[in-house]
Specification:
This protein is of the alpha/beta class. The protein is built from nine helices and eight strands. It has an eight-stranded parallel β-sheet with strand order 1-2-3-4-5-6-7-8. Helix 8 packs across helix 9. It starts with a strand and ends in a 20-residue tail after the last helix. Bound molecules: zinc ion (2 copies). The site of one zinc ion has 5 residues, from loops.
Length: 273
């Protein structure tokens, strides 16, 4: 009964038949997927929405990844605002700052991040945040721009306990990816151990970051079982309980139970409460 709160399923990443990928995940116990629609243009956003329209257990997000911030001109942002209102879009993201790769100039990243937070507040949907090597600026901008109004998720949490506390205060939940299973992730595991049970999520961020013991392979949503098992070990809890808890947390945070069902899918969703 797992929910992958963050995966990339658009054709840019999964050209070889994503329905197989989803079927493998379902066989492994994944009941729902949040498909992140970001890219240098709006193709991935549209593809995420199309997939979510087709399948009841896929939900979409749309946003501008910090890598792509320099491509976000006024017309793209206007169109994105339109897409963000789509009933199958459950969050604005992933948006944020990435000073590790610096694919876009930092000033541009910050400006676009601010605009994406404003957009989320406008459409009344939570924010999925990507932050790398930019902890202080990320927290400052979230606070400055009133992100608490919508709250959201710090995706692929890879900061420390102090960051976790500030993020939780700003009404952001912590989503743990395969990084949690990596040897050098002690600080992340500490944050995962201490976070309140109702504020933790799991994700694959596939096709990136496959967890141990499948590290190095192309990641896919089925692998979330390894991350969930690791999180259960860290917290000294049964895997089943962690699965139920993280799924319920994602359903609540993203208001998935209230999302209009997809039109053409016979699969009926029922989420744990
Ligand atoms: Zn990310
Ligand atoms: Zn991502």
């Amino acid at each position: 009964m797992l929910l992958d709160s963050h995966c990339h399923l658009d054709p840019n990443y999964l050209p070889e038949g994503r329905d197989d990928v989803l079927a493998r995940a379902e066989a492994a116990g994944v009941i729902a997927f949040v498909c992140i629609g970001v890219g240098p243009d709006l193709d991935a956003a549209r593809a995420a929405i199309a997939l979510a329209e087709r399948r009841a257990n896929v939900f979409a997000t749309v946003g501008v990844h910090p890598h792509d911030a320099r491509t976000a001109d006024a017309s793209l942002v206007t169109e994105l605002a339109e897409l963000a209102r789509h009933p199958r879009v459950v969050a604005v993201g992933e948006v944020g700052l990435d000073y590790h790769y610096d694919h876009s100039p930092r000033e541009v990243q910050k400006d676009v991040f601010r605009r994406m937070i404003a957009l989320a507040r406008d459409v009344g949907k939570p924010i999925v945040v990507h932050t790398r090597s930019a902890a202080a600026d990320t927290l400052a901008i979230l606070a400055d721009e009133g992100a608490r109004e919508t709250g959201g998720i710090i995706h692929c949490f890879s900061e420390d306990r102090a960051f976790a506390e500030r993020a939780l205060d700003l009404d952001f939940d912590l989503s743990f990816s395969g990084i949690l299973t990596f040897k050098n992730a002690a600080a992340i595991r500490e944050a995962a151990r201490l976070a309140p049970a109702d504020r933790i999520l799991v994700e694959t961020d596939s096709p990136f970051l496959a967890p141990v013991p499948v590290r190095g392979r192309t990641c896919e949503p089925a692998y979330i079982v390894h991350t969930a098992r690791c999180l259960a070990d860290i917290r000294g809890e049964k895997q089943e309980l962690i699965a139920r808890q993280t799924t319920a947390n994602a359903v609540r945070r993203l208001a998935l139970a209230e999302v209009a069902p997809a039109a053409h899918d016979p699969v009926r969703m029922s989420f744990p409460s």
